[in-house]
Write a structure and sequence with these properties.
This protein is an alpha/beta fold. The protein contains 14 helices and 22 strands. The strands form five sheets. The chain has an eight-stranded mixed β-sheet. The longest helix is centred in the middle third of the chain and has 21 residues, at 288-308. It is globular. It binds xanthosine-5'-monophosphate. Xanthosine-5'-monophosphate binds next to loops.
Length: 513
């Protein structure tokens, strides 16, 4: 399949470039700046990303442009544009005028294929400290702003374009047009990447890869592992065995509901109720990290014991998705999220790894889910942490505390499913993630009827986000919050106060522990 290579120089928006290209139904790979694949005939174009560095920094990332310039079409974005200029006899200077934000292209060469369909004064997004003050001899300027003469330039010798602005960000209003011009018209993408084609080719590949072998997969109830299982089920049917461990700290009735949904999908699922073990091992433990460690360890033990019963298994499948892998390639060295999908590999079973979603972004995983005919409630589920409600109960964990939290959380989430916003969208679908936290180390006084109460508060959390790396607290409607608060206090014995968490990430995190 044709592909575009995006060489990553460490910009925050590199992943966005990837998503935009995929939205053009074109396959792309994001690779570290120094990992351009040799002799790959499927590469139809190259994009150089932005970077936190200046081309003049001694530690700035460098790439040998001759690997691809003149061979396939190239587009340099921001640092990419500066680097191309810097390396080919142009000039990049620290002019001291850092440009950040929305600007308009005041002159554009509308005949250049990169700007086909552009409007006059099109708005673009700039974010750069250095400025290109001279371009290479064989290049000519094709767009300018009031302050930046070389907002975009192109080579007359090679299929090479460069833009100082960021077409991948939403604020570049015709950014999508520009990327489409590059990917489709200039590079010649046949736009053959789609959820349907992905399912078709992956099912074929999976059949070749695993043949008649048995595959084990750990299900969590989340979108990634569920889509992964459904895809494998389509490919190999009964040779897939899924294991779903109940540690006792899932949401109210979640285990039975999710098991039902999986069985409805025709999956071969083994449900393991291991709650006794988890509650016993967590008894009296209050430290958040300690709780996480115990749950992680117990989970691996339970999963492995179950996996070992499947003696003929040769493969372990995981719902790893593309952003998990890009993060682990992160060249700026900032590991933001550790990998959560893995239950731990039983080493003595010598299983090989199978990761059929490893090329997909989160929204594509959902599109593949729809393509596979999965029920909407499984596809649209909010993310839920592996350790479950244990990281949403402050202090030690007991069955009673879990029960209280399950009741309160169920009221919150059900109301969220039932609340239709002014624009017609369901509130649950508008937020990235919502959950309830039991502040069981705190008590406060209340009055109910004629009686004094002295009970725990719960905190409601809801955030908007695109990837959970950063998040903002969701601005929930007041009438919704009032209804939820009333219902929780009236119906959940043990709770007499409801608060709303208005912290963003960073500096807070989504989960409380
Ligand atoms: P934080 O709290 O770090 O959470 O802002 C970011 C995202 O990760 C989820 N999360 C986990 N998921 N195992 C998981 O599978 C875990 O141990 C875990 N801890 C946090 C969290 O719900 C949010 O979506």
């Amino acid at each position: 399949m044709q592909k575009i290579i995006i060489l990553d120089f460490g910009s925050q928006t590199t992943q966005l470039i990837g998503r935009r290209i995929r939205e053009l139904d074109t396959f792309c790979e994001i690779l570290p700046y120094n990992k351009f694949p040799k002799d790959d005939p499927t590469v139809i174009g190259v994009i150089l990303s932005g970077s936190p560095y200046s081309v003049h920094d001694p530690e700035a990332f460098k790439v040998d442009l001759s690997q691809f310039v003149g061979k396939v079409p190239v587009l340099g974005i921001c640092y990419g544009a500066q680097y191309i200029s810097h390396k080919n006899g142009g000039r990049v200077e620290q002019t001291g005028t850092r440009e950040y934000g929305r600007v308009n292209l005041t002159t554009v060469d509308f005949d250049n294929p990169l700007f086909k369909g552009f409007n006059e004064n099109s708005q673009v997004w700039m974010s750069h400290g250095d400025t290109i003050t001279a371009i290479p001899d064989d290049c000519h300027v094709i767009a300018s702003t009031t302050d930046v003469k070389f907002a975009s330039y192109a080579s007359i010798k090679n299929p090479l374009w460069a833009v100082q602005f960021h077409p991948e960000v939403y604020h570049s209003l015709q950014g999508k047009t520009l990327l489409k011009n590059f990917v489709v018209d200039i590079c010649g993408s046949k736009q053959e990447w789609s959820p349907a084609s992905y399912v078709e080719t992956t099912v074929k590949q999976l059949r070749e890869q695993v043949g008649k072998d048995r595959v084990i997969l750990g299900l969590s109830g989340g979108v990634d592992s569920s889509v992964c299982a459904t895809l494998l089920n389509k490919a190999i049917g009964k040779n897939l065995t899924c294991i779903f461990v109940d540690h006792g700290m899932l949401r109210k009735n979640e285990f039975s509901k999710v098991m039902e949904a999986y069985e409805g999908l025709g999956l071969n699922v083994v449900g393991v109720d291991a709650s006794e073990k988890f509650f016993k091992d967590l008894e009296g433990v209050t430290d958040p990290e300690q709780k996480r460690k115990i749950i992680g360890r117990d989970f691996v033990e339970v999963f492995n014991a179950e996996a070992k019963k499947i003696t003929d298994a040769k493969w372990l499948a995981q719902g790893t998705i593309y952003p998990d892998r890009i993060e682990s390639l992160s060249i700026t060295g900032m590991v933001i999220k550790s990998h959560h999908n893995v239950g731990g590999l039983p080493k003595d079973m010598h299983l090989q790894l199978c990761e059929p979603l490893k090329w997909l972004f989160k929204d594509e995983v959902r599109r593949v889910g729809y393509e596979l005919g999965m029920p909407e409630h499984l596809i649209k589920r909010h993310p839920f942490p592996g350790p479950g409600l244990a990281v949403r109960i402050l202090g030690d964990i007991t069955r009673e505390k879990v029960r209280i939290l399950q009741e309160a959380d169920d009221i919150y989430i059900e109301n969220m499913h039932n609340y239709v916003c002014d624009d017609g969208e369901v509130l649950y679908d508008k937020v990235w993630q919502a959950g309830t936290i039991l502040l069981s180390t705190i008590r406060s006084v209340g009055v109910m009827g004629d009686e004094r109460t002295y009970e725990h508060p719960v905190a409601l959390r809801a955030v908007t986000s695109t990837d959970a790396m950063s998040a903002d607290w969701a601005h929930l409607p007041y009438d919704f919050m009032a209804k939820v608060s009333n219902e929780i206090i009236n119906k959940v014995k043990g709770v007499n106060r409801v608060c709303y968490d208005i912290s963003s990430k960073p500096p807070s995190t989504i989960e409380w522990e």
